[in-house]
Amino acid sequence: MTKKIKKIILAYSGGLDTSAMLLWIKETYDCEVVCYTADVGQGEELTGLDEKARATGASKLYVEDLREEFVKDFVWTAVKANALYEGVYLLGTSLARPVIAKRQIEIAQKERADAVAHGATGKGNDQVRFELTYYALQPDIKVVAPWREWEFKGRADLIAYCAKHGIPVTATAEKPYSMDRNLMHVSYEGGILEDPWAAPPENIFLTTKSPENASDEAHEMTLTFEKGEPIAIDSVRYGPVDMLSKLNFLGGEHGIGRVDLVENRFVGMKSRGIYETPGVTILMAAHRALESITMDREVTRLRDSLGAKIAESIYYGFWFAPEFEILRKLVDETQLSVNGDVRLKLYKGNVIVTGRRSENSLYRERVVTFEDDAGAYDQHDAEGFIKLQALRLRLRNME
After folding, report:
1. Domain match, 274 and 216 both
2. Are both 115 and 227 inside the same structural domain?
């Protein structure tokens, strides 16, 4: 087995799992290992990673800034689609995996590597997301998944392995949960959170205040959208990364974006997760409000009818599947008229829409008004409309 692979690209964070994996792969496969770290806004300190990777056996380390691509191509797509998995989860981890895996394959092709490796466990969704992306973009790539191969049973074994080989790690056997962070969200799973009855400790949250401790004064703001994507806050334009960073800060200060969810993993089991997604929670509310005046009723219903499929495709890892490519094009088409402003109030965990306006608005006050509509709508027309709608109901009991 070890002779069949010459070079592996390892998705490397420098944390416990991938630190152990780097040495384990070198020992097991006896091949060159190139490490790759993706910056998707996780906020982790990247200083010293190159030195650590080389000291553990890597021939080199790529550090790739994917934040712009992640937000522009992946996060904004989810916002435009109003994508929610099982009606609650905003898909922060799910959206990051395909952009990370895509760049990993590009590096593998550049390095002429014949295999890639990831640190996902054999119980979770991430192994599926990484590998579906790998195979979609390079069908003949070999995949090394150490958690499905090695003899280690858990974190304590990895800590002991790293200690034995002098690999520095900050993890301890007492850490009560695992965390994944990117520019869109922070997720917490495992340990003390595995009991679905146990409330999450307040001290685990990194980016949001609790609603009880949030400001007693509401924050009012106006978000501007162009083709369904946010471009300005209070008339000040922001690029995708700065936009999401700003909204994350504002949402976090006002206790917005916390979710406690028991979700159905693709592999079959239920899993409890705690999520912080302040910025996108704000965007979802504002975007939906703007769509309410700019999108045709049946177009909205069509897009919404595909919502579960879109969210599942993202959650399950089918970003590069042919059906998802079609869905993305459909979503983008629905957003051409979603231009304008939404006024919001942020207050103690709530995103309150207080106004919306657009040059593409389909809302006509002169038609909907209860006052004199100057002939814009003939109320007598409603009688025939209702009788036609009632015909099949009447026929059921007509003699």
Report:
1. yes
2. no
Q: Determine contact, residues 259/269, Cβ cutoff 8 Å.
A: no
Is the domain of 112 the same as that of 156? yes
Q: 289 near 82, Cβ under 8 Å?
A: no
129: tokens are 């997301």
CA-nearest of 170, 168, 165, 109 to 134 is: 109
Q: DSSP of 220-255, one letter per residue?
A: EEEEEEETTEEEEETTEE--HHHHHHHHHHHHHHTT
Q: What range does the domain containing 207 cover? A: 179-295+337-357
**Nearest alpha carbon to residue 263 among 124, 364, 132:** 124
pLDDT band at 155 (very low <50, low <70, confident <90, very high): confident
The one-letter amino acid code at 386 reads: I
The verdict on 213 and 275 lying in the same domain is yes
- 145 found inside a domain: yes
Q: End-to-end alpha-carbon separation of the chain, Å?
A: 80
pTM equals: 0.93
How many structural domains does the chain have?
2
Catalytic residues: 17, 97, 126, 178
Token output for 398: 């007509």
User: What CATH number is given to the structural domain containing 251?
Assistant: 3.90.1260.10
Residues 267 and 124: beta-carbon distance below 8 Å: yes
Residues 213, 345, single domain; the answer is yes
Q: Which tens digits make up the pLDDT trace of 325-350?
A: 999 999 999 999 999 999 999 999 99
